[in-house]
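Dataset card, provenance and construction

Sequences and ligand SMILES were collected as paired inputs. For each pair, a complete structure of the chain with the small molecule in place was predicted and serialized as structure tokens. The example below shows a pair involving nicotinamide-adenine-dinucleotide. Curators did not alter the output after generation; any descriptive sentences attached to a record were derived from the structure itself.
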Amino acid sequence: MKVTVIGAGNVGATCADVIAYRQLADELVLLDIKEGFAEGKMLDIYQTSSLLGFKTKLTGTTNDYSKSKDSDVVVITSGLPRKPGMTREELIGTNASIVKTVCENVLKHSPNAIIIIVSNPMDTMTYLALQATGLPKNRIIGMGGILDSARFKGYLGMALETPTADIAATVIGGHGDTTMIPLTRLASVNGVPVSEFIAEPELKKIAADTMVGGATLTKLLGTSAWYAPGAAAALLVENIIRDQKRVMPCCVYLDGEYGQKDICIGVPVVIGRNGWEKIIDYKLNAEEQELFAKSADAVRNMNNVLKTL
Ligand SMILES: NC(=O)c1ccc[n+]([C@@H]2O[C@H](COP(=O)([O-])OP(=O)(O)OC[C@H]3O[C@@H](n4cnc5c(N)ncnc54)[C@H](O)[C@@H]3O)[C@@H](O)[C@H]2O)c1
């Protein structure tokens, strides 16, 4: 299995690092436009191989897409991250042209790849990638919900003082501070609804903290976070490569599911070797369905900005 990560910045390099040390691929390529940057990151990661014990073949390259030839999975993280006070949506102008060009270059050398979009605003970048490539819809997957759900589980774990591995919790909708929908009603710890242990006001605060989870980190770090985003993208790669058929919230093209059409937005999907293989059309309650419709409206408005660029 061959994986390429485009963008050797914070998220891309972290994703590559996790893929390497967990030996998810036989061959891993990291590509960046900045001269020598990806080569340097890959050399550094390679020098952890005797310490961590992996033998994945690693290649770093400055914009040479021929090195990515015949990749099975490509993760696109290239583009600007947000600075404190910025929304993900403000990145659209710059990142749209980067994502479009990158997708075209990727497909020239890896026509059969499954493409994971990480660059923000991720829902709109996923929609753009689908339009720009004309690929079958199951081969373009936006990563946002896996990260947002990990943050949701993190805040629940802190409140419950429970290992996050025992918590099941999902965030659907857009990957934005005001568009994501933490499904509090369905969150559970070892099968018991979290509402058995956490009072309603605190649960509301956990959902609110989850929604601004990225902004909180951006404020602390001065730039967008990378450990959890990189690990979340690597987990998606793992599920594809190992054909695991796990259900994960991902940004995919909807054609009537959840009452929406012609949009890419986060919903639970089965992930396997063919990309996203099936949408799990949960029965949302009236309040959740209304939030989902509002979230889709906001994502659609952002998609419309693409027409003006
Ligand atoms: N979807 C998510 O859950 C999620 C989470 C965190 C960050 N992000 C987004 O991921 C993107 C990357 O974030 P980061 O923190 O790694 O940023 P970063 O600035 O650390 O890295 C971005 C890299 O992209 C490279 N790049 C720019 N244009 C390129 C091109 N045309 N071809 C190849 N490489 C190019 C840059 O040189 C840089 O190294 C941002 O858009 C950020 O908002 C998404």
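Derived descriptions for this record:
The pocket of nicotinamide-adenine-dinucleotide is lined by residues 6-12, 32-34, 37, 77-82, 88, 91, 95, 98, 101-102, 118-120, 122, 143-144, 147, 175, 223-226, 229 (CB under 6 Å).
The first strand starts at residue 2 and ends at 6.
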